[in-house]
Amino acid sequence: MSRQGRLAGAVEAMLRDRRPRSLSADADEAAQLRTAALLRSAHPGADLPSTEFVDRLGQQLRRQAALDEAEARAPSGSGRRAFLRGVGIAAAAVAAGVGVDRAVTTLRSGPDLGQSATNVPDAGDWAAVASLAAVRATPALRFRAGSVEGVLVARADGGVDALSAVCTHLGCLLKVDAPGRRLACPCHAATFALDGTPASREYLRPLPRLQSRVNGDQVEVYIA
Amino acid sequence: MRGVAPHPRESHPHVQPESDQAPLLRVVPAPDSAAWEAVYREHVVPVYRYVFARTGNRPDAEDVTAQVFLRALPRLRLAASTGEIRGYLLTTARSVLAEHWGRHYGAAADPLDDERLTRDDRDPPAPEAGAERAHTVLGRLPERYRRVLELRFLSGMSLRETAAEMGLTLGNVKVLQFRALRKAAELDAAEPAS
Prior knowledge:
The complex is a heterodimer of chains A (224) and B (194). With 224 residues, chain A is an alpha+beta fold. Chain A has helices spanning 3-15, 27-41, 51-73, 80-85, 87-96, 100-103, 132-136; strands at residues 125-131, 141-145, 148-154, 160-164, 175-177, 182-184, 191-193, 209-210, 212-215, 218-223. Chain A is built from seven helices and ten strands. With 194 residues, chain B is mainly alpha-helical. Chain B is elongated and about 60 Å long. Chains A and B meet through helix 1, helix 2, helix 3 and helix 5 of A and helix 2, helix 3, helix 4, helix 6 and helix 7 of B.
């Protein structure tokens, strides 16, 4: 499709109240998208939130506030500020014991929401977590190794990727949705593609990668 | 969905003491929840409208608004004036919008040019400012450009309905709309601070 066609498609999506497809806009095209959004907001009633959305977000905030409060009161908590930076990992670490925070250090990296990163642990061991055949037999395979919750995904080139299976929203453990070829969070319906990028709530941080390798017929993950 | 906070084990099944060493995470209702919920109710509509004028569609406006409040939540629970809270929410909204636009429309896509950003920081805009600005831009367009954008964006007519209304072919309307939007974007960018 031409550039002009992609831009027109994005504008038509706005007019139908749908999310436009991502595109790489130059400065002029971005200005036109900006103006299209502005004009759309002048459609009577278009820029008012639905009651359902307002209620749903209110409930989500209430749950988050309750978790904040719990951490602030926890006797051995790492302190309120640290908790607010890494609410998901704090909850997961409490659930799993120790070590999760070292295994997925990228979760703590604060407001940088746009990037994934490969975590490089400084001390630990390689642990065999699954056979290569088992990984290749399914779109994604969950594993638990010590305190690390992860998922293995066979790559097209024969290698294997390992990702954290802790949702970057509030730290729930992800489940494999094999027919959908994605990872789904049971808590708030967030989903992630098998490369770790958020698929349903795109403002979430991508799933951090874990170090992994194929050793003979076993897949090993580095456990800090 | 229920009107009360669910029991933590229902919404967060992982929060369970699986290890003897792990401290129990006690999830209790926030004592000041009534206060921040009132703040939320007061600001959610203006913030949504601000975000909608910079996203132009419901799914993106909902996602961005949710992210704004989740990030701002710790601050909502502190005592502050309505104006201070509004300013903080809009500052947060601008940063979430910048990330959103960068991710969806590429590096060149900044939802707020520098001039407007500076002005907003001094004096956060009222949510009505979006519609006002839209009408100002429309009012400066040549008649046919203004007409096609009004029919499509304000009246919500389809391409086909717009073609019938203006006595044009579908192809004519597409070309006219493209040129009109390009011109409107030029005027929007050039408009002096109001």
